[in-house]
Write a structure and sequence with these properties.
The complex is a heterodimer. By secondary structure, chain A is α+β, with helices and mostly antiparallel strands. The radius of gyration of chain A is 23 Å and the shape is globular. Chain A starts with 7 loop residues before the first strand and ends in a 20-residue tail after the last strand. By secondary structure, chain B is an alpha+beta fold. Chain B is built from 3 helices and 4 strands, in the order E-H-E-E-H-E-H. A two-stranded antiparallel sheet of chain B has the order 1-4. In chain B, strands 2-3 form a two-stranded antiparallel ribbon. In chain B, a hairpin with a 2-residue loop joins strand 2 and strand 3. Chain B starts with a strand and ends in a 6-residue tail after the last helix. The chains are: A alpha+beta, B alpha+beta. Chains A and B meet through helix 9, helix 10, strand 14, helix 13 and helix 14 of A and helix 2 and helix 3 of B.
Chain lengths: 571, 83
């Protein structure tokens, strides 16, 4: 088949939403609620009506309850994120969190409550105030939310397309006017003419498996090429993962007495943080794991023997895919809650980097907005913030785009020539010989997983990794091919993961200090004088990565930056 | 990872293929087949959605990338590559 001759369709809409997960659906909901006359087209690369990765989430939701202080929560995250917190933005976000929890409740999603109907919150990571509120049934909380939101999309008349990957944004000067993409089963080419575009594609991952394999780097590449400013790419989620299978929910176990132990049976976090011990963020735990393993005290196991019987309701899966996983492991002779020899390893999952936007999700490109996990807010992940930040920022950006469209002038359309040029580029990897996307992906995953690349970084190891990435880019990437449209989608993902990896390595090299999950062996201390700021990156005129440190505007903020979560640790 | 689809039980309803987040499954000649096994992320959505109980997903994942050695050691010992 000559892929340059594939059928193409022009689709016109007021708002193109890229990504059909929680954030995209919240933005769509608010657009239609503000102005039912708007045409909203939501495009997702996954299956019809699945609702994105929210479907696989446990259902924990971070919210400030009535009577609690939003300021207390902001102070908690200023501390937890080692100062890299947009305080005014987070105040606004937290102040809307309970409303979104109530919205979910009103849509029929149930949360865990005590006998008096009060929400049962779980404190986490040794923070004073931030809590997460679990779904009523552990295992299907996210699925229920996804299904409730999909119903809203149907009720509100949001047009939706599935199995479709948007690959490039099209601009006229500094304004977005549309996008192009393709169907990953039929291969059909789409040209989207849109007055505004919202990117809501989730966190970008290295495809670690289970709950993070769909959202990868291609949207980062798309935004980078469109001139969007990015930030926080030096910070990752490196998860403590069972070596053989998938499991989630460790944060809650640690809050309730669970702990990781080394091969000698020592609860090693007590050594690295006498203050917090085991109940801390997984990135600090995986850093310690790497040190333990490197020093010959591996493997690492999870010890749940200290959890009180009455707290097991928070711990044991009761339904859904988590329950099925638990039962299947039992059938294989593995009892997650009683076996003492289940090995855990550090695993690179995803970046917390994303777009650096205005408070409403606006980018420097007129008409282009980013919301949900694709917008970078948190410097270290907090349990429950996925479901809560997607709902809140999707809501905010939906409102903002509805406002924007009230006064926006009509832009021009994507031209035939622009669409044809992008089409030729898009289908150029189609072929029948070379390296599959998976073969190349594994090499980048392996590159990232070395402990001195993902956890214990140094100028030497990061520079070596950058050299190896360049070698893969020169020697292997040109040999990668796509045998059909399914593989073309995977091809675009892997291409994006190359950029993701480069952004990570370059930002990690620039940050010559240690902060949050970013740890440099050659700069093990914080350096507030030079680095109390966000590393922002964008595409330079020659296509390369241009980066700088953007200082935290302390004079403008309400709370002093004088407590640091990382001070609890000595490595 | 997805392991088997029992073609004797499969009635070709296509629910699994329609719901797989990663497009691993397709319906061909009236039966669901594992078209792209490498892309499975072990989410169990197909097995849970199959009305015939025809699908089995094994709970083990593909081998995780190694954490050790560090990249400097890896590059210095790799055959045919300069350190």
């Amino acid at each position: 088949m000559d892929w340059k001759q594939v059928p193409e369709t022009v689709l016109r809409t007021d708002v193109l939403i890229i990504g059909g997960g929680a954030a995209g659906m919240w933005a769509a909901k608010r657009l239609k609620e503000n102005d039912p006359g708007l045409d909203v087209l939501m495009v997702d690369k996954g299956p019809e009506s699945w609702g994105g990765l929210m479907r696989l989430a446990g259902g924990d939701f971070a919210a400030v309850l009535p009577g609690e202080s939003v300021d207390d929560w902001v102070k908690d995250v200023v501390y937890y994120w080692d100062g890299l917190c947009e305080q005014d933005v987070m105040e606004d976000i937290f102040s809307q969190s309970y409303d979104r929890l109530l919205d979910y409740k009103n849509l029929g999603c149930e949360f865990l409550e005590d006998e008096n109907g009060n929400l049962r919150g779980v404190p986490q990571r040794g923070l004073d105030h931030c809590r997460l509120y679990p779904a009523k049934l552990k295992g299907t909380g996210g699925q229920n939310m996804a299904e409730a939101m999909v119903k809203e999309m149907v009720r509100l008349g949001v047009r939706r397309m599935s199995r479709t990957l948007v690959t490039d944004l099209v601009k006229d000067g500094d304004r977005v006017i549309g996008a192009v993409g393709f169907h990953s089963i039929t291969g059909e080419y789409y040209i989207f003419q849109a007055r505004a575009v919202i990117v809501a594609c989730g966190n970008a991952s290295w495809k670690p498996g289970y709950n993070s394999n769909t959202s990868t780097g291609e949207w980062v590449d798309m935004c980078f090429q469109a001139g969007v400013e990015l930030r926080n790419f030096e910070t990752l989620t490196v998860m403590n993962a069972p070596k053989l299978f998938f499991w989630e929910g460790q944060a809650i176990y640690l809050a309730l007495g669970g702990r990781f132990v080394n091969a000698l049976g020592e609860p090693f976090m007590d050594k690295y943080s006498p203050v917090l011990g085991a109940n801390t963020d997984n990135n600090y735990i995986t850093r310690a794991m790497a040190i333990e393993i490197r020093n010959g005290r591996g493997p690492i196991y999870l010890d749940l023997s200290q959890i009180k019987p009455e707290d097991m309701v928070f711990v044991k899966p009761q339904t859904g895919n988590q329950m099925m996983n638990y039962e299947k492991l039992l059938a294989e002779g593995i009892d997650f809650f009683h076996d003492k020899n289940i090995e855990f390893i550090p695993q690179v999952q995803l970046t917390l980097g994303g777009a650096a936007t205005a408070p409403d999700g606006g980018t420097g490109v007129e008409g282009l907005y980013v919301c949900g996990r694709s917008r970078s807010l948190d410097y270290v992940y907090m349990g429950g913030f996925g479901l809560s930040s997607t709902a809140i920022t999707g809501y905010i950006t939906g409102n903002a785009v509805a406002d924007y469209l009230r006064t926006a002038s009509a832009g021009r359309e994507v031209s035939v020539g622009e669409a044809a040029g992008l089409k030729e580029k898009l289908y150029s990897p189609m072929g029948d010989a070379g390296l599959t996307p998976k073969q190349v992906l594994i090499k980048v995953q392996n590159l990232m997983s070395h402990y001195d690349v993902c956890l214990l970084k140094s100028a030497e190891s990061l520079t070596a990794a950058l050299g190896e990435l360049d070698r893969l880019r020169t020697e292997e990437l040109p040999r990668m091919y796509a045998a059909d449209p399914h593989y073309l989608l995977k091809y675009k993902e892997v291409e994006g993961i190359f950029l993701l990896t480069e952004l990570y390595l370059r930002a990690s090299l620039l940050r010559q200090e240690s902060r949050g999950s970013h740890y440099r062996l050659d700069y093990p201390k914080r350096n507030d004088k030079d680095f109390l700021g966000w590393i922002v990156q964008r595409q330079g005129a020659d296509g390369s990565v241009v980066q700088r440190v953007k200082p935290v505007p302390l004079a403008r903020y309400k709370h002093p930056v004088d407590r640091f979560y990382s001070d609890n640790f000595t490595f | 990872m997805i392991q088997t689809i029992d073609s004797g039980k499969c009635v070709g309803c296509g629910l699994c293929a329609a719901k797989c987040p990663l497009d691993v499954l397709r319906v061909r000649a009236g039966k669901a087949v594992i078209a792209y096994p490498d892309d499975c992320m072990t989410c169990y959505i197909c097995e849970r959605s199959c009305p015939q109980g025809a699908i089995f997903v094994h709970p083990f994942k593909e081998a995780a990338p190694p954490v050790l050695p560090g990249i400097l050691e890896f590059l210095s010992t790799r055959d045919g590559r300069p350190s």
